[in-house]
Amino acid sequence: MRNVATEPVTGEEVSLAERAYRAIRDRLVMLEIRPGAPINEEQLAQSLGVGRTPVREALKRLQYERLITAYPRRGTFATDVNITDLAHISEVRQELEPLAASQAARRATAADRAALTALRRQLEPADSRRPDAAELMRLDLQVHRAVYAATHNPYLEDTLVRHDNLATRIWCLFVDRLSDMAGHVDEHGPLIEAIVAGDADKAAQLARDHVEGFERAIRAAI
């Protein structure tokens, strides 16, 4: 399995602010920027090769998405990961993930289905090397985001991306205690197949099972 980007490939050209947003977002989601760590605009701008204005615009969006918190006269920090949020996040995802999967099965274009099929192939390692945890989580993010994009409902997509990001932060926090990460990610295989085949009911059920299994695994690891 190769290292994968977390954003679906669309061929679009993105602004500097969007590029900064995606990069900082994924560092926060993957806990590369640790919970509670201070956010330094200048350092981020230098590491991304952009000016401070795109970074500042990105941080405004990330604050809305609950990935950073700004305190007057103290500064801006990565939000803490609070396990008590799991129930609230799961409550939303258990309702909306099946909806997204079923709508993706109904609405996916030929390009969407091709992208999902390519991701399906990435779920199967090209060699005997066991993928590391970070690689698995990045692939998990990419599959989820591709499914959301295939709904062609920007409001549903935006809501689910934000909640999946928060769920992934919890996953990263407990990754060392989870025994079957690869199995959790492999569940996407049948889900992708159902979406590509246009089987909305099966896709919805598989998505529901996936989210419920995620919550059980995290609670077992606590």
How would you characterize this protein structure?
The protein has 222 residues and is mostly helical. Strand 1 and strand 2 form a beta hairpin. It has two domains: 63 residues, Orthogonal Bundle (Arc Repressor Mutant, subunit A), CATH 1.10.10; 139 residues, Four Helix Bundle (Hemerythrin (Met), subunit A) (Up-down Bundle), CATH 1.20.120. The radius of gyration is 17 Å and the shape is globular. It contains ten helices and two strands; from the N terminus they run αααββααααααα. A two-stranded antiparallel sheet has the order 1-2.
What's the CATH H-level homologous superfamily of the largest domain? GntR ligand-binding domain-like
The mean pLDDT is: 89
Distance between the termini: 29 Å
Enter the CATH topology name of the largest domain: Four Helix Bundle (Hemerythrin (Met), subunit A)
Task: Give the overall shape.
Answer: globular
**Number of domains as seen in the coordinates:** 2
Taking strands numbered 1, 2, ... along the chain, how are they ordered across the largest sheet? 1-2
Strand content: under 5%
**Structural class by SSE content:** mainly alpha
Number of helices: 10
Rg from Cα:
17 Å
What percentage of residues falls in helices of 4 or more residues?
55-70%
Indicate the low-confidence ranges by residue numbers: 1-5
Q: Can you tell me the CATH architecture of the largest domain? A: Up-down Bundle
Give me the count of strands. 2
Would you list the SSEs in sequence order as H and E?
Answer: HHHEEHHHHHHH
CATH top level of the largest domain is Mainly Alpha
Strand count, sense and barrel status of the largest sheet are:
2 strands, antiparallel
